[in-house]
Amino acid sequence: MQDLLQHIVGHNDLHARWLNTLSFMENAGARKISACEHPVLVDFIQLKHAAEEHRHAYYLKKQIAKVSPDTCKTYQLHELLAPHQTRHYLHQLDMQTCRYIKNTFGLQGSQLKYAAYLFVTYAIEVRADALYPVYQAELDKAASKVMVRSIIVEEEGHLEEMMKQLQDFAPDWETHALHVQGLEQQLFDHWMAAIGQELTQYA
């Protein structure tokens, strides 16, 4: 991952698409959180997460102007890295997690949606906690004007909040979270491999 990010940060057009890709994923996450909301039983934390993920998407989009102005205005395929893997990443994780939770806990409807929100969000926050600091380190090395430190701080807070909610959901939540993390790891590896393949043309 570090080598890929170093390569990306070193090419402005790649860097713009990388920022746009992260923005797309943050926006997709915010939309997923909102889609999981109960019509009336929505708590403060869920609203906070959706709002902050949307803000991250907006912030990352703004950062593009620092490396490649007037590019990546939308989320069309040619404006993303590994576009097919990027667009299906979160949806696949959500579907696989829903299947696991339904089989394990027997939940349906809004209860299933909420449980999936907890476990999927936790897995994504663990991933963000690993990815963004490595990215920031490469930005620092390159003396880039782009920064993601504010996102790192908020994602760390999200992770703590998700852990508290999962503890309330099930005493053995960690066992199930590990399973979901395994699903996410497979998708992440596939995504990284696709990005790496795309980067070969920039060698």
Beta percentage is under 5%
Order of helices and strands: HHHHHHH
What is the alpha-carbon Rg in Å?
17 Å
Helix count, per DSSP? 7
Q: Look at the helices and sheets and give the structural class.
A: mainly alpha
Question: How far apart, in Å, are the first and last alpha carbons?
Answer: 16 Å
InterPro entries: Ferritin-like_SF
Description:
InterPro entries: Ferritin-like_SF. The protein is mainly alpha-helical. It has one domain (1-200). 77% of the residues lie in helices and 0% in strands. The protein is built from seven helices and no strands. It has helices at residues 2-9, 12-35, 44-63, 83-105, 109-141, 149-169, 173-199. Helix 4 (83-105) packs across helix 5 (109-141) and helix 4 packs antiparallel against helix 7 (173-199). The longest helix is centred in the middle third of the chain and has 33 residues, at 109-141.
SSE order and pairing:
Layout: H1 2-9, H2 12-35, H3 44-63, H4 83-105, H5 109-141, H6 149-169, H7 173-199
Helix pairs in contact: 1-5, 2-3, 2-4, 3-6, 4-5, 4-7, 5-6, 5-7
